[in-house]
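Supplementary Methods. Inverse-folding protocol.

Structures were first reduced to a discrete structure-token string of length 308. This string, shown here, constituted the complete conditioning input.
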């Protein structure tokens, strides 16, 4: 039995979860992570630089990042608000383009994390080590997080929806969304470069720049920002609540994630659509959910149980 953390969130070191297969790499995840990082590194080559690509990439970090923080996390995992099904599916599709797995698998893993947070069964506790929680857990086979029984146990509500079930039954559907974004970004850039210069060669250059900055670099940045919630906010920061795990409020992660970094607040009140419990703990994602309500795309928003 793993002991509960102290009231300050500390605990002794943990072993990796028992279902992790020693020395067995998840080759699909590992190759994807290495490949996208390598492609993102092309931003350092001047040929691929355009200011419009930089702008698209930076805007995309928030837009696509919100599909994870607002869509995958607060909507699908914790059901902290409701939206029309068509809009929910749109958010989920954008989330798929972040290369963080299917909605049902993401939800199942996150619910498993809440069920065993910072215990040995937690898929990504930093009490194993920092890099394990940040991204190491992704590249090893974990029998509990990648099987039908886990999906049935932790994401049964999603699988009742044919949209999510089809994604699990046919992985090529997810792959189609992922590859389509590369084509769309390249086409948009090619048209911008071609019409602005009249040269096909410039269209090619701008199209490639949109792919590299707008997709590859954006995916990498959203990855590390999301992974920081698993790693940094369970190690560094302050605690408003003496929860039974190591969650902390981390202002840097909160700034990068537009609110997700108030993680101790979230573990105290996971059903809430807002992670802002003090007036200065700004949660931009919650304000965006309120905006969705104003335009008729969100309802039944669950407020925080506690404010200070």
């Amino acid at each position: 039995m793993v002991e509960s953390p102290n009231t300050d969130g500390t605990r002794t070191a943990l072993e990796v979860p028992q279902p992790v297969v020693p020395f067995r790499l998840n080759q699909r995840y590992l190759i994807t992570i290495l490949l996208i990082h390598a492609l993102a590194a092309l931003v350092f080559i001047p040929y691929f630089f355009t200011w419009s690509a930089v702008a698209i990439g930076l805007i995309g970090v928030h837009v696509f990042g919100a599909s994870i923080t607002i869509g995958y996390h607060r909507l699908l995992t914790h059901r902290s608000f409701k939206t029309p099904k068509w809009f929910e599916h749109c958010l989920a599709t954008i989330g798929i383009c972040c290369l963080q797995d299917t909605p049902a698998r993401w939800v199942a893993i996150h619910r498993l994390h809440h069920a065993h947070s910072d215990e040995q069964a937690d898929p990504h506790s930093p009490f194993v080590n920092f890099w394990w929680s940040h991204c190491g857990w992704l590249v090893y086979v974990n029998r509990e997080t990648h099987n039908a029984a886990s999906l049935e146990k932790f994401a049964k509500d999603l699988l009742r929806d044919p949209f999510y079930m089809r994604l699990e039954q046919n992985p090529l559907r997810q792959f189609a969304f992922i590859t389509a974004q590369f084509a769309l970004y390249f086409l948009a850039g090619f048209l911008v470069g071609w019409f602005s210069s009249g040269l096909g060669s410039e269209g090619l250059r701008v199209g490639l720049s949109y792919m590299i900055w707008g997709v590859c670099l954006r995916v990498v940045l959203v990855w590390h920002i999301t992974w920081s919630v698993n790693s940094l906010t369970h190690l560094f920061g302050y605690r408003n609540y003496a929860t039974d795990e190591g969650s902390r409020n981390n202002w840097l992660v909160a700034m990068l994630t537009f609110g997700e970094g108030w993680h101790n607040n979230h573990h105290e009140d996971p059903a809430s659509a807002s992670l802002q419990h003090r007036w200065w703990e700004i949660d931009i994602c919650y304000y965006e959910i309120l905006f969705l309500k104003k335009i008729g795309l969100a309802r039944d928003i669950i407020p925080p149980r506690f404010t200070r």
